[in-house]
Amino acid sequence: MGKIKNFIKKMAWAIPFVILAMSADSPFALATPKAAYIWNKLAEGIQHASYSFVIGEKERVVFNAFKIDPKLYRFDILMTDDEVEGATVFDLARKTKPLIAINGGFFTPEHRSIGLIVRNGKILNGLHKTSWWSIFSISDGVPSISKPSDFVISENISIALQVGPRLAINGVIPKLKENLATRSALGISEDGMVVIAITSGYGISMTELARRMTLSPFQGGLDCKNAMALDGGSSSQIFAKIGNFEYSQSGLARITNALAVFKK
Fold first, then answer.
1. Phi-psi domain of 141 (left: phi exceeds 0; alpha: psi -120 through 50; beta: other)
2. How confident is the model at residue 81 (pLDDT cuts 50, 70, 90)?
3. Residue pLDDT, tens place only, 138-151
4. Is 250 exposed, middle or buried (0-12, 13-18, 19+ CB in 10 A)?
5. CB atoms within 10 A of CB 146
6. Which of 24, 49, 65, 175 has the greatest number of C-beta atoms within 10 Å?
7. What angle do CA 186, 253, 54 make, to 5 degrees?
8. Do 183 and 198 meet the contact criterion of CB atoms below 8 Å apart?
9. What are phi and psi of 139, to 5 degrees?
10. Residue 214 burial by CB count (10 A; 0-12/13-18/19+): exposed, middle or buried?
11. Mean pLDDT score of the chain
12. What residues contact residue 47 under an 8 Å CB cut-off, 6+ apart?
């Protein structure tokens, strides 16, 4: 007991400093971790973040991301009428005036869509059996990402878009390609929000894209445990106009379909 009392007496001097460190106003306060970026509210249920990071010694990648509440906004698939020339995301947005439109699925050199497309419960393009592709769908206002073999069509599904590959499955990143390119992707956050993201600047690999989709905001990620890539590379392009906010990024390719966000 004597040793314990002596230890308490020796440590008594530190108690005031511990109390000071616990006070938010104290100069001794412990630093609170800060996110690598800030979500800016553009409208009720929709936010935007823009931030950059360096890969290697000096290669800078820029991320632009949107977080959307599927309970407040309607998702749809825009499709071009011209299967010969295709269209840009700006062409598709000009006709329908969405809040956001980003390039969607794969297509042939003749600008015919490849992979499942469902609009308002109707199948507009058939399922592709490639196992590593993935399907983004919304059923009764709830978003999900699934593999083709697990997907079941029902009248409750408002939209479905098949692209690929899966970037993260419950936080686990599968083996992905390492080639560098501009990327576009979508994910589902822990609170059920849909996150749409596109990169610019230096190209990144699918693996790095997956990491950035799954990491926490404090680590420079978008905190999506489930995520998938959209058709990237030269197809990556986006248009957004929400109130006074505007952001656009053009791609080199003409596309056949786009994922769009509308007011309900």
1. left
2. confident
3. 999 999 999 999 99
4. exposed
5. 18
6. 65
7. 55
8. yes
9. -125, 120
10. buried
11. 88
12. 39, 40, 41, 66, 67
Say yes or no to pLDDT of 62 above 50. yes
pLDDT 10s digits, 215-231: 999 998 999 999 999 99
Task: Say whether pLDDT at 21 is over 70.
Answer: no
Q: What is the 3-state secondary structure (H, E, C) of the chain?
A: CHHHHHHHHHHHHHHHHHHHHHCCCCCCCCCCCCCCCCCEEEECCEEEEEEEEEECCCEEEEEEEEEECCCCEEEEEEECCCCCCCECHHHHHHHHCCCEEEECCEECCCCCEECCEEECCEEEECCCCCCCCEEEEEECCEEEEECHHHCCCCCCEEEEEEECCEEEECCECCCCCCCCECCEEEEEECCCCEEEEEEEECCECHHHHHHHHHCCHHHCCCCEEEEEECCCHHHCCEEEEECCEEEEECCCCCECEEEEEEEC
pLDDT exceeds cutoff 80 at 125: yes
Task: Render the burial of 50-65: b for 16+ CB within 10 Å, e for the rest.
Answer: ebbbeeeeeeebebbb
Q: Give dist(CA 108, CA 146) in Å, integer.
A: 23
Are 121 and 139 in contact by the 8 Å Cβ rule? The answer is no
Which amino acid makes up residue 13?
Answer: W
| Residue 99 confidence (pLDDT) above 50 | yes
| Both tokens assigned to 203 | 């190209």
